What does this fold into?
Amino acid sequence: MNPPFRADHVGSLLRPTGLLKARARHQADKITDEELKTVEDQNIRDAVKLQEELGFEGVTDGEFRRAMFHLDFLSRFHGVAVRGGLPMRFRSKTQTMEFSPPRLEVVGRLKRTAGAATDDFRFLRSITTKTAKLCIPSPTMLHFRGGRKAVDETAYPEMEDFFADLARVYQEEIAELGALGCRYLQLDDTNLAYLCDPAIRANLRERGEDPDDLPRRYARLINAAIATRPPEMAVCVHMCRGNFRSAWVAEGGYEPVAEVLFNELDVQGFFLEYDDERSGDFAPLRFVPPGKTVVLGLISSKQRRLESKDAVKKRIDEASQYLSTAQMALSPQCGFSSTVEGNDITVADEMAKLHLVQEIAAEVWA
It folds into this structure.
C-alpha cells in the first residue's frame, strides 16, 4: 500500500459555498486572515473526512487555501513577482473562452525565506490517519510560460544559474516537508503535456525554444529539485493540459515526450489524463519502465456525465496491451478545482466520480 494508490485522485476539490463566501469577504477586508483560516480549517476537516469515508488512502486538503494550483505556492519564493495577466484560450466541448491567469516573473535571485506549503501540510497531517498527500506545482511552472523573457537578465545572466537556484529552493522546501512527515508528494505540471500539442510546439520554436530539448531540460530540473528527498517519500508527476471551468488549453498524445519523461524522471509514478481523445492513445505507455506506476485518468473531472464502469474497465484492458495492469492505478483525469472557480459540475457529481474510482479499482485490482 505505497503511493500512488490503486484508487487515487489528483488533489483539488470543489470549494464549498461557505468557503467561497469567506474568501470574497476576506478580499473585501471584511474578515481577518485568522477568521478566513478558521473557515478554511473547518472545510478542510470536512473534506478529509469525506475522502476517508470514500476509502482513499491518499488524502489531500482539496487545495482549499489556494486561488490557483500554482500561483500561491510559487509567489512565496523571494524573487518571484506576480505581474499582470497571461492571455490564454481555453476550450471545452461547447465553447471557447479567454482567460488571463496572473503571470509570474523572476525579478531577483531566488530564495526560500519561509515555508511555501509547510504550514498547509502540517495541518493536513494532524487531522488524518491516512497518508497526507501534498500537491505542489512543478518547478517548470516558473519557466515555461515566459521563458527567458520572464527571468530578469540582471539577476540571472545565465539561465543555468536560474535553474540551479530554482532546484535549490525546491530542495529546501521538500527537505522541511520530509522532516514534517510528508511521504507522498505530487508535482502538478501542465507544461510537459503542453509539449504534446503541435500548435504549442510551433509557438515555442517561434520564441526561440526547442520543444524537443525542453523535456530533457525539465527532467533534469525536476530531478534536481527532488534529489535530496527522504528515501521514504514517494513523488509523482501529474501531467495536465489545462483545467479551468471544465475547459482546457492543449491537445495531443504523449508520444513526443513519453520516452524521455517515463525513463529520465526519477519519480515513482505519473498521473496521466486519458478521459477523451485529447490525450491520444495508450501506445506511449510502452516506454514506461519496470518499477514505475501510471495512474490512468479515465474519469473526467470536467464533465457531469458519470462514466460507465464497463467502459472504464474496457479502457484499462486496452492500456494493458502496452503496460502491465500491475503497474497501473486509477483516478479522475485532473483535479475538480485547479482554480478557485472550480469545474462546471456539482458536488454530487464529484462524489459520484470519486466513488466510481474506488469501485472500479477494488474490482480490477482485487
Summary: The chain has one domain: 17-364. Residues 17-364 form a domain with the TIM Barrel fold (CATH 3.20.20.210). The chain has a mean pLDDT of 94.
